[in-house]
Amino acid sequence: MVIEKICCLGAGYVGGPTCSVIALKCPNIKVTVCDKSTERINQWNSDKLPIYEPGLDEVVKQCRGKNLFFSTDIAKSIQEADLIFISVNTPTKTFGNGKGRAADLKYIEGAARMIADLATSNKIVVEKSTVPVKAAEIIMKILRANTKPGVEYQILSNPEFLAEGTAIVDLVEADRVLIGGEDTPEGQRAVQELCWVYEHWIPAKNILTTNTWSSELSKLAANAFLAQRISSINSLSAVCEATGADVSEVARAVGRDSRIGPKFLEASIGFGGSCFQKDILNLIYLCECLNLSEVAAYWQQVVNLNDYQKTRFTRKVIESLFNTVTDKKIAILGFSFKKNTGDTRESPAIYVCKTLLDEGAKLHIYDPKVETDQIYYELTTPYVTNEPEIVRKNIEIHNTAYSAVSGAHALVLCTEWDEFKELDFKKIYEVMMKPAYIFDGRKILDHEQLINIGFHVQTIGKRLSRTGSIRAQGSQTLP
Ligand SMILES: NC(=O)c1ccc[n+]([C@@H]2O[C@H](COP(=O)([O-])OP(=O)(O)OC[C@H]3O[C@@H](n4cnc5c(N)ncnc54)[C@H](O)[C@@H]3O)[C@@H](O)[C@H]2O)c1
Ligand SMILES: O=c1ccn([C@@H]2O[C@H](COP(=O)(O)OP(=O)(O)O[C@H]3O[C@H](CO)[C@@H](O)[C@H](O)[C@H]3O)[C@@H](O)[C@H]2O)c(=O)[nH]1
């Protein structure tokens, strides 16, 4: 079979960018991205795409209507496709068996049932969503139990490694593409067909093929390793604050060892995003189910340390402000989970804001890309101690950083947007209440300059000479 038509179920952060790049690099293949949500598909067909991703607009504009289509006509797209990507969401279960840990596979199962219902010819079905090991077996069972006469399926695992904010570059210049398939002649033929798609732009040596289960586990393992590096450096940031060492210097020194490498050693207020926590919890649940409790406990600690880092930072803000933020105006700069994305899923800013709101603070929030409604949504659902209406009264969303900081007791920087480095802090100092506090949760500001202006400054993993922290003054240890 030569792949002429591809269908993708799920037009989200993965399905949209991935298929746009496939369409760009494979002009001979017709790519249709489908979603159950008509609103999402309408946005993909409009001038304002549903997600912000540098470089994505250009790719979509170049291909849309030529060989790239966004559609709600799932039946037609499935029927005409040779290959179907399943790129649906796999959130952590919020109830029932495995609550808070296991991946909820209801959307995967739903997608498999749709394919089984609608397909009338042979299909290669590719699991692109991140799933627990052996999830392909579920898809296989559903498809093969409902096969129409003459229809055959091959199921492949092809996890996605793109990071938000750099998705287009990550897709165009992928370190590797991973494809897992069944160890049968038909399975291996399907693997080669998907390899052929990627070989339009990825060097063959960077396309790794494995068995299905290794491929599924490698995705969870890659995220667990990356998150573990962040928790490791964040754990050391606490040691730095307590001793006078500087975590950036430690990271530079440690990262120079070529066996360790310099990337992903940036101490922060904690990792966020829709993947790291969900995928580690997924791995932990898998280990528990396999009676590997020591392994589960090992990875659980990565998540625990991340929670500790978020709590530690927020506690520092409150303690520095004389242990009360009630009725104080606090400017929050950055709400997305990292720069260059409008995505707020599991953003550490949510924890910081909710805790401050619970303590009675009035928040003035600015983020260059997050929509106002999204901020309200994140802060009012779920787990708030106050009623949503009360919470809303204590939040104001701003269009600029300058208006957010006006009259504020403190500025809390939660996301490392480049534009925050360019702000005129002399101007900001003038309009803030005194003493004026800055809490740099991303270590991106010029702290010496801020201290010279007159700010009390605190950051992650470094003790600054003028911190303003009651606990820090005359004390060798920070909370
Ligand atoms: N976001 C990332 O950066 C990233 C990177 C790598 C892997 N992943 C994984 O990829 C998967 C998708 O993540 P995402 O961030 O794109 O999720 P998302 O929530 O942005 O998008 C998923 C989309 O699937 C749609 N959907 C659900 N069931 C459907 C069905 N049966 N038919 C058609 N559409 C359906 C939903 O309406 C939604 O729009 C997850 O498993 C995630 O872990 C995400
Ligand atoms: O040194 C670092 C690097 C990252 N982060 C934080 O970690 C989180 C995740 O960042 P990143 O990994 O860059 O973004 P994601 O889009 O979540 O991408 C991760 O999750 C995706 C979904 O599975 C994978 O495909 C990617 O390979 C993997 O990097 C963010 O809050 C970052 O601010 C740090 O605190 N310090």
Secondary-structure map:
Blueprint: E1 5-9, H1 15-25, E2 30-34, H2 38-44, H3 56-63, E3 68-71, H4 74-80, E4 83-86, H5 106-118, E5 123-127, H6 135-145, E6 153-157, H7 167-172, E7 177-181, H8 185-198, E8 207-211, H9 212-243, H10 247-255, H11 276-289, H12 293-320, E9 329-333, H13 348-358, E10 362-366, H14 372-380, H15 388-393, E11 395-397, H16 401-405, E12 410-413, H17 425-431, E13 437-440, H18 447-453, E14 456-459
Parallel strand pairs: 1-2, 1-4, 2-3, 4-5, 5-6, 7-8, 9-10, 9-12, 10-11, 12-13, 13-14
Helix pairs in contact: 1-3, 5-6, 9-11, 9-12, 11-12, 12-13
The protein binds nicotinamide-adenine-dinucleotide (NAD) and uridine-5'-diphosphate-glucose (UPG).
